[in-house]
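A reminder from the course coordinator: this example appears on the midterm review sheet, so study it carefully.

Given structure:
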């Protein structure tokens, strides 16, 4: 996935970028990259000559997106299955409604745990600046 943005700050090899308001940002409704609420932090692996106010293209590898999605969705799904199976093993006469209820409770518990872990320890920075764009390009 590629994004465009304007460089707001340089910190060594790390670059703080204000993301553009494009259709690609619609997924999170720009909640993570609104000015003042958090900006994209990217690396400059190509050692491009960067300066404040430049428009750049940032790439986020698909593998990184897949790993983050897997880490977010797999634990709740496994918790639901585990809760459903556990209640059925604990009491074989329990109906499917009660087993599903236990699964849903564990699903939400696991989702909350994943949320809290990601708040305390965000995913590693996988964004990289790929090129400098002309400043007259619309964003």
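Designed residues:
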């Amino acid at each position: 996935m590629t994004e465009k943005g304007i460089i707001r700050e340089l910190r060594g090899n790390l670059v703080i970028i204000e993301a553009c308001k494009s259709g690609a940002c619609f997924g999170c409704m720009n909640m993570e990259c609104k000015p003042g609420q958090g900006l994209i932090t990217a690396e400059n692996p190509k050692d491009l000559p960067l300066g404040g106010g430049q428009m750049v293209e940032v790439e986020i590898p698909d593998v990184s997106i897949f790993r983050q999605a897997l880490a977010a969705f797999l634990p709740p799904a496994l918790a639901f299955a585990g809760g459903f199976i556990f209640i059925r093993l604990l009491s074989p006469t329990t109906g499917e409604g009660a087993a599903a209820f236990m699964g849903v409770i564990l699903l939400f518990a696991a989702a909350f745990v994943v949320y809290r872990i990601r708040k305390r320890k965000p995913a590693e920075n996988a964004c990289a600046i790929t090129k400098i764009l002309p400043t007259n390009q619309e964003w």
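DSSP finds two helices and five strands in the chain. Helices lie at 62-90, 96-120.
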